[in-house]
Write a structure and sequence with these properties.
five-stranded antiparallel sheet, single chain, alpha+beta, 15% strand, 423 residues
């Protein structure tokens, strides 16, 4: 396979043929969005409350029961092709679904399209061997196991991904992996990890590393701890771990793609992944907006004097509404460009949404908490959870500053070319 799941369906979309086919597909997506919205704003709220108060692992029985409901409704793994039990959505179509699921911290997990599993599914679908797909992708797609992705290292700046110490040394038909990773999301309870490791230290910087699938029960794999983020170490899927690999031996056949192709595969994984994240953030913003407005009209400063009568609160609501709507359009445009023009053609658009939507997310959450006052700092709403766990949106998958610099260079390079200036 040579294309990602989303890209494959985007290609199919260009050949659907009739307006009637397009209308039927649009209606099907609308129905899927409505189904998920009813679950997310209905029974998912009770499960969400359990997670916020007692943690992810304690809520697993309720989570699995509701996941079965999502599966029965035909809304499971919407990003995957029908042959794998999914809905076969294009990236633009999935963006709409991702927004709805983002309205609750449990939404994407319920539909089996949560990070990092969704990225690993797409990676394995496009680049893994048939044997790896049968052993690992198939049960991952069915929601029978979870995975993680081990790339960032505590010894090196995450903003420079080519600077990496983890090594995978060839020994006959095996790789022997030694290294140290952290902020490996969802490693707690994962069945396997995809490890980024240097396989040829003498190669060009972007051709040194490869991606290798490592079962988490392989001797030498150690989960040192779950890292406390804003005071919360989390558990199970809702966690970020520090890992060590000490002489971990896996077959060479566990390599995903060609040797030295790790960074190219990571970049291919990141484009759709950033769209996924950004639309999830839009969903968070919409829920935060709803909570903010509810608080503004129901909380009284004095009898008959609702908080929302204050001009400062009205400004917060107005700014949030405009910023959310603008951010959504920016992301949907980036998704369309990615489908139409590929990763290279959509590079500037992807950089734009990554820093812009993360900034909108932070601003909207901050306003929503402010409107709630001290109540917004409690676990009575998901606002405090999101504030703690989504501040990283401006850091992971490339910090704001990297994307700003990349976009700025690209725009100025084009301007220089227009004006005949060497750049």
């Amino acid at each position: 396979m040579t294309a990602t799941t989303h890209a494959t369906h985007a290609g199919d979309a260009t050949q659907r043929g009739t307006r009637g086919d397009d209308a039927a597909r649009a209606a099907r997506v609308d129905a899927l969005v409505s189904t998920l919205r009813a679950i997310v704003d209905g029974p998912a709220r009770a499960v969400e409350a359990h997670v916020l108060r007692h943690g992810w692992r304690d809520a697993l029985p309720q989570l699995h029961a509701l996941r079965d409901t999502v599966r029965a409704a035909g809304a499971f793994a919407p990003h995957l092709p029908p042959a794998m039990g999914g809905a076969g959505l294009s990236l633009v179509e999935f963006a709409r679904v991702s927004e709805v699921l983002g309205r609750t911290p449990v939404g994407h997990w319920l539909a089996n399209c949560q990070a990092p599993d969704i990225g690993n599914m797409e990676l394995l679908h496009a680049h893994a061997s048939p044997a790896l797909q049968a052993r690992w992708l198939a049960p991952l797609a069915r929601g029978e196991l979870r995975s993680c992705f081990a790339m960032t290292e505590p010894e090196h700046a995450g903003a420079n991904p080519v600077w990496m110490s983890t090594r995978a040394v060839r020994d006959g038909d095996d790789y022997v992996i030694t290294g140290h990773k952290w902020f490996t999301t969802a490693a707690d309870g994962a069945a396997f990890t995809v490890v980024m490791a240097v396989t040829d230290p003498e190669a060009a910087p972007h051709a040194r590393a490869s991606m290798i699938l490592v079962p988490m029960d392989t001797p030498g794999v150690m989960r040192v701890r779950n890292i406390a983020v804003m005071g919360d170490a989390g558990d199970d899927w809702a966690s970020h771990a520090e890992l060590r690999f000490e002489d971990v031996r896996v077959p060479v056949t566990h390599r995903i793609g060609e040797a030295g192709a790790g960074f190219a595969l990571a970049q291919a994984r990141l484009g759709p992944g950033r769209v996924h994240h950004c639309m999830r953030w839009i969903g968070i913003c919409e829920r935060a907006f709803d909570l903010m407005c509810e608080r503004a009209v129901t909380r009284e400063l004095a009898p008959g004097e609702p908080l929302g009568r204050k001009e400062a609160i009205q400004h917060m609501v107005a700014r949030s509404r405009a910023e959310i709507d603008a951010a959504r359009l920016l992301v949907l445009d980036a998704a369309a460009r990615l489908e139409r023009d590929g990763a290279a053609g959509a590079r500037d658009a992807i950089a734009s949404i990554k820093f812009h939507v993360a900034g909108v997310l932070q601003a909207v959450l901050d306003r929503a908490i402010q409107v709630h006052g001290a109540y917004g700092l409690t676990d009575a709403t998901p606002l405090a959870f999101w504030w703690a766990h989504e501040r990283g949106a401006r850091i992971y998958d490339g910090p704001d500053e990297v994307h700003l610099a990349s976009l700025g260079r690209s725009l100025l390079k084009r301007a220089a070319a227009r004006h005949g200036v060497a750049w």
